[in-house]
Fold this sequence. Notes:
Elements: H1 2-29, H2 36-41, H3 46-56, H4 62-74, H5 88-123, H6 128-142, H7 145-159, H8 175-209, H9 213-220, H10 225-262, H11 268-278, H12 281-309
Amino acid sequence: MGRFIARRLLGAIPLLVGITIISFMFMHLMPGGPDSLYARSGRMNQEQLDAIRQNMGLDQPVVVQYTRWVGNLVRGDLGNSYVQFRPVRDIILERLPNTMLLVGAGLVIAVTFSLIFGIVAAIYQYSFFDHLFSFVSFFGMAMPVFWFGLMLQLLFAVQLGWLPTSGMGSMDDGGIVERIRHLILPASVLGVGSIAFWSRYVRSSMLEVIRQDYMRTARAKGLREWSVFSRHALKNALIPFVTVIGIDIPLYFVGAVVTETIFSWPGMGRLFYDSLNARDYPVLMGLLIFSAVLIVIGNLIADIAYAYLDPRIKYS
């Protein structure tokens, strides 16, 4: 197992290098730049704009800028923000706990309801529950996230007044209860899309597993039906589910851009949106490389989970 993990980590290095090259290239191909904000103000002449570009290092060729950025990255330095004039690492670490809280809550909602919907739909195939959960799943797949978020705000915040519309609340004002009230709507929006897809994976896997010979053998031994499903079917059916989760968990940080923007949640997604509008290249590159590392780690964790769920899988 140790050798397998080492090989996967070493193999991820060329992938990460390729991601940084492509991201850096396309980022500099975007119209405008960090200095465009100063240029649009009309308060600076060309000499002042050139001085700003020189201080930012934007007067150098893209290859030189990329080489300098990679050199700093190897030393753990993500550079300084062009807008906030602070280390990118500090900015990301400030927003990371907020995003992890939102992503964690969204994952709890998604995993819980995906398992419930998928297992019940498989056990009672073609029943009312199966058709109901299928309708909910297809609705979740087709539903735009931003529209769903706005509808939840309109219903629960504006019309009913049960929940706040935006922000994450202050622990000093309402404590943990107030934080949870602010968390319910964005976490639900973040998790509902995954429920739609993941529940279908669970249902399909469960239907495939319950038709296997060892399931009939377990029933023939006199085991209760729930014991057959929980001890024999669910563990094997979770293998494809773990694959999807391992890939989607890092993407939650990417998908949080829309959710955090709609609900003004001060996390990394909102930071990415604001940095994109400001053409804050160092912050954008820091967030992109962070997301790429999360995707690599997520896939590695999924591979390790295979060996736990299925003893037939061996890594050497």
